[in-house]
Amino acid sequence: MNLTVRRPRGLEDRDRIELKAEEPGSSRPTTFTRHDRSHIPLKQFLRSGDNILLLTPAVAVEGGGTPRGQDPFESLGRAISYRHAGVKHVPYTARNGITSTHIGFVKTATVVLFIVSGRPDPGQIDQIDLAREVQQCCRSIPLVLIVPEIVSEVTGDFSTVLQVPDLIQENLGLVAEVLFAERS
Fold this sequence. Notes:
Rossmann fold
């Protein structure tokens, strides 16, 4: 499926990003564009009691297999927690970016998974810049950046970048498999 990312109308949704899925044209792989082998598979260094922080954009969804009103990344959190019990799923918003609350969660994490939903709309914060903020706070904590194909180039010194064709439920399920090396 192809995703279009646009900002919805309405004051209460100013800080949300909207994902709209269209029918698939072809099946494309989930691939690492950068891969620090000390970060993946996650199971190689996670121990019981360790926390995985899943930072996701607050999004409004149309299509993509997610029921209306449900967080589209909830299934990813569940798929990861099936493999490792300590998962904290914390959304960030385009309006507020990364706050002290997010930083508090980062400091307690063993690994941070940062989801980017797409390129920024005009006047909107670039989610890659938000990922850089998180990276500054977690120098000793592995950060895995997960981006859709629409984000063609990721600049900066992110050591592990996983690119998915788009952020539909099927692909998010595969992300958990790839992170835990159940699929390559």
